[in-house]
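In the lab's daily routine, each protein ends up as an entry in a very long ledger. A line of letters takes care of the sequence, but it says nothing directly about the fold. The fold becomes a row of whole numbers, each drawn from a learned catalogue of backbone shapes. The protein below has been through that process, and both of its lines are reproduced in full:
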Amino acid sequence: MPPKVLIIEDTESLALMYQSYLIPTGVNTKIAHTGQQALDALDEFQPDLVILDVMLPDMNGLDILSSFSTENSPQVIVLTGHATKEMAIQAIKLGASDFLEKPIEADRFRITVNNALKLKALKQTVKTYKTTYENGKYFDLIGSSRVMQSVYQIINSASVSKATVFITGESGTGKELCAKAVHLASPRSNKPFVALNCAAIPKDLIESEIFGHLKGAFTGAISNREGAAGQANGGTLFLDELCEMDINLQSKLLRFIQTGCYQQVGSEKETKVDVRFVCATNRDPLLEVEAGRFREDLYYRLHVIPISLPPLRDRENDVIEVADALFKKISKEEGRVYKGMSAEVKSLFERYEWPGNVRQLENTIRNIIVLNNAEFIEISMIPIFPSTSPIHNAVNKLNSVSPFNQHEHINEELNKPAKLNDKNQIEPLWVVEKRYIETAISICNNNIPKAAALLDVSPSTIYRKIKGWEESAVS
């Protein structure tokens, strides 16, 4: 959205001239000829910058300037044909960013306006950073470690731009939360944020999910459908697990990113949208390029502002801050009361490496909250960690049933030695996968979302596979 400039000038010809000076800059302008018109326009138009003439027919322009006392007030450039040193000093004291004496050259006028708008944008950026980064929290991202502060600073700097952000990090590090922070810190925060997981959508449906389709474009397309690109118009489109996208679709995505135009499946008409792209992957994108699974030109088109999310084990003492926030959040969701963690629990959380990162921590905390109705979290409530953990001996006497135990049971099933004597004993891979997933669901008492979390896949992936098995059985 272009900046808004309110021109307060009683002489109509001068007001129109100032307005014409600003046409090449692309700003949105409005004119007021009296003090009262100016006050009304300030409420309705809500400008980023005010060009203020001091001598108005019904009041002194400096009286309007003195009314700007809030942090959200616009920048002000004061104009007058009766300049004095005292008036300039007074205007600056009242908050004006600059002072110009009539007559004004077009280039000087545009430069002054541009500088004032840059100052406004900088103030807004600083304000946003101060209000969003409080007590170790930046939007929904939590942590005061130096590596996370560096991430916050990158997001804050990138937010005012439309440049593509490329987020990398291990599974469970919070890549979608990071993408949302980029969106919420940007001028697009009041527009849609649309997230699409490229790994959770079948290869033959992902083009339709991104670009939409027309009725009858393919079997099952019973109506027109707007894709994620259209839904995100004016806002942010987040493409998660981008390296999972089919290589043949990557060329269409590249063109969409370059031109902002796309075609719905089954349509010859091009649609243009204004979208900011944020993408993420838990793989090394350069290795994917070298392996031929990811287009090099798409990589360089997207890899404009890289953000590398650190694993939880490399975030100093953030695990305690994150755990405390999660205990409060989940306790509220489950109708429980949480007052704190014991020193032993904190020490345990800090020493464990959390291979599943924040997602694993969240699953562990939910397990604790659900199975223990206590206000204070003690060491005896912690689920058993895997035997590979360096702190296994500290908690191996605990008897709670946990996602870690469940994961071990599932792994026991998978790791049974394959006693194959001849080729007739070899099973199709999908049969082995089916049995493994069904085992996980059974161990989790038919809780598919919980089984999906342990298997590190989306619940929609499991539901889709179950549907496919059922359809195969019917046919």
User: Anything to note?
Assistant: The chain has four domains: 4-128, 135-310, 313-400, 423-474. The domain at 313-400 is CATH 1.10.8.60 (Helicase, Ruva Protein; domain 3). The radius of gyration is 29 Å.
